[in-house]
Every structure is written in C-alpha cells, then in structure tokens.
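lol ok so funny story. i was supposed to be doing the assay writeup but got distracted and ended up predicting the structure for this chain instead. priorities right. anyway since i did it might as well share w the group, maybe its usefull for someone
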Amino acid sequence: MNGTSPARLGSEAAVPSPGWQEDALGFLMAPVGRDEFFDRVYEKEALLNIRGEPDRYSSLLTLAMLDDFISSADLREGMIELTNRKNPVSRDDYTYEDGRIIRGAVAREYGRGATIILPHLHESLFQLGEFARSLEEIFSCHIQTNIYLTPSGNQGFPPHYDNHDVFIMQIAGAKAWRLYDTAVQTPYRGERFQLERHKPSEVRQEFTLQAGDCVYVPRGMMHDAENVGDEPSLHITVGLITKTWADLLLEAVSELALTEEGFRRSLPPGFATREFDREEARRHFSGLIDLVASKASMESAFDLMADNFIRGRRPNLAGVIMQHPPVPQTGDRFRRRRFVPWNAAEDEGALVIVGPGGDLRFKEEDGDALEIALSGGPFGEDELNCAEPAEMIRRLWAHGYLEKIG
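and the output, tada:
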C-alpha cells in the first residue's frame, strides 16, 4: 500500500453484480470490472467493497452450516485449528493423541475467546467448492479457503502479512480491520511472516466489514482484525496460491538441462572450502546463463505448468452416481460442467484430454466429437460424429466432465 489508502466501494456504489456462477470476480468486486481489477488493483493495492447486502454469501456459508459441520463431521487434526491472541492455545489442548479433535475442548476454548479456524472447508461443502472452482477458472491458480469464527470482542492474530493474495468475505457479525504498509512486495509462497522482523507501520486504513462485504488484500500487506460486534464474526478468507515467473523460469531451465549437459555437471570438488578459486565457476555459470537466454523455451514450460495445474484440480463427481446413465437414452441432452478445465494433446497417435484428476485417451478421429462434447454447449448422442458416441459420453460422465440437462 506504501502509505496510500485502499480503493473503497461504498454502499452507494453497490449496483447489481453478477452471481458467482456467471462471474466470481465480479460477484466479489463489482462494479470494478475484471480488466480494471487486473490492471489497477491486482498485486498492487487493497480494494474494499461495502455492499449492504447481509445475505449476499448465504448460499456459500452460514453460521448454521458451520455449526452443523463442526458437530457432525469426523474432525481430525488439520481440519480445525484454534488461535487466541490473549490466551494462546496449544493444539494438544483440543486434540487426542490419535489425531481426533476433542469437540468439548473446542467449545471450551471458543468460550474463552479463541478463534475457530477451518482450513479447506471448500473440500467438504459443495457450493463453496464450486465457488472455489469458479475462481480457479479466472485466476488459473489453486484456491484455498480458511473459515474464521471469532467470538464477540476477541482477536485471533496480531498484525501480520500473508504470502498469498486474499479476498475476505464477511458472512456474519462485524469485524474491524486495520491495514498497514506493505512489509514485503509480492513475497514468495515460502516467505513466512516473522513477528520479530516485520513490525507494523502506523495504521493506514481502518474499516469494519459487515455481512455481505468484501475486501481484497494483496500479499505482503500487513493487516489485523478483531470482532467489534455483539455477535460472533464469521468470515471466509479466500487465498490465491499462484505460480510465479520464477516458477516458470525454473521449469524452463529444468527442461533445458535435459538437452544441455553443462547444467547437469556437478559443482567443482571443494567448492565449499574457503580457499576455492571461483573464477572458472563464474565462466561456466555465465555460459549457462547465455544458454538460457538463447535456448530456453517458454512455450513448452508454459504448456507443462498449465497441464499440471489442470491435472491437479479436484474432479467434480456430484450426481455422477445418483444420475448415472449406463446407456444414454433417446432425447438425453448433456453439456460440460461449469468450471471444469481441460486441454487436449496428441501422444503417439492418440488424442489425450488433460483434465482434473488425470488424463483420458481417445482416438485421433474422435477430435471433432470431443470438441462438441466439451464446448460447454448442449448436445445429444446423435450429434457426436464418432464411432462410439455412447461410450464417449459414459467416459466423460464418469470422470465428472458432463452433466445432464433437460
């Protein structure tokens, strides 16, 4: 932030915005559009959106939904965490030796002012998972969610920064936020905040999020928050786990090393000794840099990172068992599910569909039919011009690509 206040969208600007199914970023930040967000805001400054719509996020999460999950799920270590700035809590205080969560201890510590944190709840709640997938489609990055439930008048964390960008969506209650200067510009994923090293500046901006409000905070910007209402504060922190240009360059160098022997040679014997002469090493290193500049390929590294991202997504199999069509019936219509990424590649005469959870192989001549099936538009079995259209539908259905319509 560097001494400037974040942009603010007041309630008077809360014009109708798209639903998250149509445009998840617009759902969070409208009336700021996607182009303006990426050009002006993303990784640069905070953006506050006060909408005055208390039920805006109720389809994704409510206090009742959270209460049901905590009371009924088989909670294990890592699924729930507690933190309390005033009275620190140890994980041993609420976890059995076998890793099971002691629910009574969670309730006890919450009553003493601890914040309850549920990481990755989007992996357990379908609608929240779909929302995460919708953001993955926009950002081409892994989306993580952390749910924070803070009792009235308490605070979970001291001033700190995150090493990933976040959207903070207030679900219930009220939480007062303070933003400080940016301590580290776009920190690495592994660059952890250190309390003794990074001291907060004077407060640059203060605001209170009410239910339905949202704020975007870029990584590296210091912030803290506390519950200032009479009710529990519940919010979702949506984290963007992105890949960086450094990641892309490292992948390109790794690929280049497969064909250029100089990268694979061992470092010189004795390089760690104080007497080692580094002059020859400098010449070799300079030569490798020249090879990177002249021969490294962005395209192949880009393709690999894109495919790995797609393969790493979780398949959406909702309804696949309950509505399973062993054989498509006459008149059945299908389309590709929303937010299911895919790519296509050729491999030894086969057409490979790269998608969440792994690859599917088809015949090369099935390409036109696959293009129809995965376009997102409605289609029937008779529209797939291939040798075995029913089998294609069954395979795509079983792996979560398709849904039945009509």
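Confidence is low (pLDDT under 50) at residues 1-5. The chain has three domains: 7-241, 245-297, 333-405.
back to the writeup now i swear
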